[in-house]
Design a protein that fits this description.
By secondary structure, the protein is mostly helical. Helix content is about 35%, strand content about 0%. It contains nine helices and two strands. The N terminus is likely disordered.
């Protein structure tokens, strides 16, 4: 593997407690919320940067373009999905629109506020109040609520993905190929690809066949293997089964 293909591990989009100063250049527009997205149901309570939950909701229900705080140059996928969940119609063509996903992203303003306002005593809220920018540290790993799957669980997940793949809708409205994304997840598990391997295999955004959806799916799979994601990859495809 050449030096030009290696990526820092873990990438800001794949971990939590990320400050804006740690953001990396986006390799295309992602279509799923990153691990640190405040609009995601697995967000750390109270980790909202300098804005309150009420202020973020005001922004989300406006015509403002919301940038991703972990990927420079990309818009916030979680905010776009939240807007779809609450039927917020965006008139500005430049702002991304994504399909509804109430499993990954909050479905109502009340859910968003209840989750984040309950975090007033958490590490995230204390850091924000003190205007402290948290950087990667070994303590961040302890935040992961799930444990790494066993080899047996990984093998079962590979089998499940293979069995369900023919029944999953092949493409979405953006032309993303779900079957190729499932194949990528299987490859990550069978070959034990780490994040550097994933970016080397799927992260060349100058290639004609580059797919941000495929890259996101592979990274999400890696997060499950690392115990940073409790939901198995197959669960994410259930809603797309025909």
């Amino acid at each position: 593997m050449s030096a030009t293909t290696r990526r820092p591990h873990p990438h800001p989009m794949a971990r939590q407690l990320v400050s804006a100063s740690e953001a990396c250049a986006a390799r295309g527009q992602h279509t799923k919320p990153c691990a640190d997205c405040p609009w995601g149901r697995k967000a750390l309570p109270g980790w909202l940067g300098s804005n309150t939950s009420a202020e973020w909701l005001q922004i989300a229900h406006s015509e403002c373009q919301i940038e991703c705080h972990t990927a420079l140059g990309a818009q916030c996928a979680g905010a776009a999905i939240y807007r779809a969940n609450v039927c917020k119609s965006i008139r500005t063509p430049a702002i991304i629109r994504l399909p509804r996903d109430a499993e990954r992203v909050f479905a109502t303003p009340m859910e968003f506020r209840a989750h984040h306002d309950a975090g007033s005593g958490t590490l995230a809220a204390r850091a924000r109040a003190a205007r402290v920018e948290c950087s990667p540290s070994p303590t961040n790993e302890s935040i992961a609520m799930s444990t790494r799957p066993t080899p047996e669980e990984v093998a079962k997940e590979v089998t499940k993905l293979r069995q369900m793949k023919p029944s999953v809708r092949k493409e979405n409205m953006f032309g993303d190929n779900h079957h190729e994304a499932i194949d990528a997840q299987i490859e990550v598990m069978e070959k034990r690809l780490d994040e550097d391997d994933i970016y080397a295999a799927y992260g060349d955004d100058t290639a004609e066949d580059f797919s941000q959806n495929l890259l996101d799916s592979a990274i999400e799979d890696r997060r499950w293997l690392d115990g940073e994601e409790s939901e198995a990859p197959s669960a994410g495809w259930q809603d797309l089964v025909k």
